[in-house]
Amino acid sequence: MKKVLYILTSIILLSCSTSKIVTNEKHDNIIPFHYKKLDGIVLMKDYEIFFPGEYKGNRFTPTDDEIIKSENLLKTKIKDINTPEMINQGGNCPIIHKNLKNYFRQYSGNYNEKGEKILNINFIWDKYTIWDKIKGYSDDRAKFREGYYFVLDGCSYYWQVSINLTIMKIEMFTVNGIA
Fold first, then answer.
1. End-to-end Cα distance, the chain
2. Burial class of 42 by CB neighbour count within 10 A (0 to 12, 13 to 18, 19+)
3. For residues 112 and 89, what is the distance between their CA atoms, to the nearest angstrom?
4. Which among 12, 24, 42, 174 has the fewest CB atoms less than 10 Å away?
5. 156 near 168, Cβ under 8 Å?
6. Would you state the pLDDT for residue 92?
7. Given this model, what pLDDT does residue 57 score?
8. What is the largest CA-CA distance in the chain?
9. Quick one: how far is CA 147 from the chain centroid?
10. In whole angstroms, how far apart are CA 172 and each of 87, 115, 141?
């Protein structure tokens, strides 16, 4: 009986996710964002983002209302946009529309050439388990809150979307490559 109890306890402990690392540090031009089970940061209009494809025009700081509306749109449309191709997903990589709640978000805003508001969302996998630790993966989740987190490759653990807030339409959807 003791062996069975030991084995069951071990299985339960090994299958649990570690708790999220939360820092209380304040960072310039970054606002924490929490809504229901969503967790992220808002990069204010004065935050300097250096990443490929950045729109260098006028920027704005997304409001909570704009983010929530965009998240609701994404929730209803992501499966249609993601399937049937499901680029860089499956196997060892998560299926995006089945794991939407498991991503940390980084929100930034800019105006396009037409003057329309565009909300850019950077999605970063935020489910770090004990198995990940055993495999030797580093838990970089604290860095997600410090500023824009740019990753090359990493398949669907990292992906981006741009939503046109003026017409409430998803205009860009990209998933990182596999390497």
1. 46
2. buried
3. 30
4. 24
5. no
6. 82
7. 61
8. 70
9. 13
10. 14, 17, 25
DSSP lists the bridge partners of residue 108 as 120
DSSP 109-142: EEE-TTS-EEEEEEEEE---BHHHHHTT----HH
DSSP state of 52: T
For residue 98, give the DSSP letter: G
Phi/psi at 63 (nearest 5 deg)?
-90, 160
Place of tokens 């388990």: 129
Which residues contact residue 1 at a Cβ distance below 8 angstroms, ignoring those fewer than 6 apart? none
The number of beta carbons lying within 10 Å of the beta carbon of residue 166 is 13
Query: Alpha helices of the chain — where are they, by DSSP H?
Result: 2-15, 64-82, 130-134, 141-144
Residue 23 confidence (pLDDT): 40
pTM: 0.78
**Whether residue 62 has a cis bond before it, omega within 30° of 0:** no
